Amino acid sequence: MFLSQIVQADGSRAVVARHDGQPARIVPGAASTRDLALAAIAAGRDLTAEVAARGAGNTVDLRAALDEGRVLLPLDHPDPAHLHLTGTGLTHLGSAATRNSMHAKADPETLTDSMKMFRMGIEGGKPAAGAVGVQPEWFYKGNGFNAVAPGAALASPGFALDAGEEPEVAGLYLVGPDGRPHRLGFAVGNEFSDHVTERGNYLWLAHSKLRPASYGPELRVGALPDHVEGKSRILRNGALIWEKPFLSGEANMSHSLANLEHHHFKYDLFRRPGDVHVHFFGTATLSFADGIRAEPGDVFQLDCPALGLPLSNPLDQQPGDAKPVTVAIL
Question: Are 90 and 111 within 8 A, CB to CB?
Fold first, then answer.
């Protein structure tokens, strides 16, 4: 089952459920995916059972809604400050090659910190059930103010040195009233980053990740397949300028999802009741690694059928400002 959120013709919000081979339908009585999930938690049942208990609403043409700009993020929060955008890197087989080349040292026999981290994941990222594995790289992308709806522009700040896509699987979570995290499902996400800044010094990774991100249009409820395939594309003036497949799922990863989830939610800070979390699981595919430099107006398109309809976002470049930000003294 897939869930999405739309704006209806009268301006109200609605949740849409879609099963493979069946038309998408409004979920009666649900104005948001978060409210639907809270109701499921209160009733002691999963999302599929919660949707089934509400019956079938009117049909929806999701592709038309996408074209009309009426599809929202599949999971959000009424207070954007309570939506956390985070992620992990060096989690996929092959992901270390690009990062290692960006941070290679003069002595080819000397391992970069990135390669050391990757090897730690290979050796200890998939612990036995009930055990804790090695912790991954972790980064913060911001809160809900950095979350961009499908079809909306990803704005690169004026001080950025690059604006590049990262096609990833994102886990979507809601923390229940008792502080326990609940995974609602997965979505394809564009973990938009500044790779030139990152390449300058790996300690600038934190700066390079403070950019907007998009995910959706749909949320896949239930387990993630062990092997997930997709295609990442860049369109310029409607023409394809770059395309490459990407792989995800645990069969293509050096960490288990359970291990990545543990090392995020082990912090009390991330188990605040009612909060929403969108956690990106990493990638091994970047146009930047192929020498592509995106330009304003280019469209990033991520197509991953296992996670629903394709995600598209144009690139917007904000004007630069040479003036420093000054702090007022009270």
Answer: no
